[in-house]
Amino acid sequence: MTTPRTVLITGGAGGIGQGIARAFLAEGERVILADRDPDAVASAADALGADALTFDITDPAAVAAAFASLAAAGTAVDVLVNNAGILSVHGAVTELAPEAYRSILEVNVIGTFAVTQAFAHHRIAAGGGGSVVNISSIGGRQPTPGMGAYESSKAAVDSVTRWAAIELAPHGIRVNAVAPGPVLTPMLEMGMPEGSPARQAWASRIPLGDLAKVTDIAPAVVFLAGSGAAHITGVSLAVDGGQLLT
Q1: Which residues lie across from 32 on neighbouring strands?
Q2: Which of 114, 150, 157, 161 is catalytic?
Q3: Rounded-to-integer distance, Cα 40 and Cα 180, Å
Q4: Is residue 119 within 8 Å of 67, Cβ to Cβ?
Q5: Between helices 60-72 and 112-125, what is the axis angle to 10°?
Q6: Residue 197: count of CB within 10 angstroms of its CB
Q7: 120 pLDDT band (50/70/90 cuts)?
Q8: What is the dihedral of CA 108, 70, 122, 160, to 10 degrees?
Q9: How far apart are CA 91 and CA 102, in angstroms?
């Protein structure tokens, strides 16, 4: 019988984080949801039957302390899913304030790097092995006017993925990414219900005809984190309904 792995998912209180958690729990894994909102992550973890952990990925000291507390409790994290990120900064290249641009880089790039670095130290101390799956975006490869701050941050996540993959390979740590197109989280689905003009406009860009569901994203994460992907590292897997083909 295979020993369950421990999977840490940042941004775990959000819709995609919870969807990924459900997929790992269905595989019999132990899941720790991490988020900066203690009440939201505790509620999500309780509803799913997962554990909860509170830290802000933009605070490297807090990230390191969280991994130290897990190690002190005898918990070895086997899989890290860097799901936390923000999509709240929009603006044209001629209008966006540098401070706003810096804020999204701080979360999406520096935060992803900080948690990956802490996980790498954690795994190396445990003798190596383990897997990282970053949540990127096809926006890092296909620009949309007004979304360049977010999209360039995700291009950087893909680069961090390749960087970490080549340097951590000698320790047996694999690092990959899943790059979704637009995903119908509960919040997005409320704002763009089926049949709405906004939903139809997005869907018209996608050869398979609609935006991804959270349940379309989670299996790709589970695959890249698992033994079936044992010889895959440094890859950013698009899950976009073919949008990059257009």
Answers
A1: 8, 51
A2: 150
A3: 24
A4: yes
A5: 30
A6: 8
A7: very high
A8: -10
A9: 13
Report how far residue 180's alpha carbon sits from residue 15's, in angstroms, rounded to the nearest whole number. 14
Of 47, 54, 58, the closest CA to residue 70 belongs to 54
The ranges assigned to domains in the chain are 6-233
Confidence at residue 193, expressed as pLDDT on a 0 to 100 scale: 86
Contacts of 73 (CB under 8 A, 6+ apart): none
Q: pLDDT band at residue 88, thresholds of 50, 70 and 90? A: confident
List, for residues 62-78, the tens digit of each pLDDT value. 999 999 999 999 999 99
Tokens of 56: 């802000």
Tell me if 6 sits within 8 A of 32, measured CB to CB.
Answer: yes
Rg (CA), the chain: 17
Q: Is residue 150 annotated as a catalytic residue, yes or no?
A: yes
Q: How far apart are CA 102 and CA 15, in angstroms?
A: 25
- The per-residue pLDDT for range 184-202, each reduced to its tens digit, is 887 778 778 888 998 898 8
Exposure on the CB side of residue 105, measured as CA atoms within 13 A: 11
HSE, side-chain direction, 13 A CA sphere, residue 244: 14
The position carrying tokens 């993959």 is 165
Reported as a single tens digit per residue, the pLDDT across 128-140 is 999 999 999 999 9
Whether the pLDDT of residue 38 is over 80: the answer is yes
**Contact criterion met (CB below 8 Å) for 243 and 181:** yes
- Secondary element (H or E) of residue 86: none
Q: Which CATH architecture has domain 6-233?
A: 3-Layer(aba) Sandwich (3.40)
Residue 1's pLDDT is 60
User: What tokens appear for 41 in the block?
Assistant: 């992550």
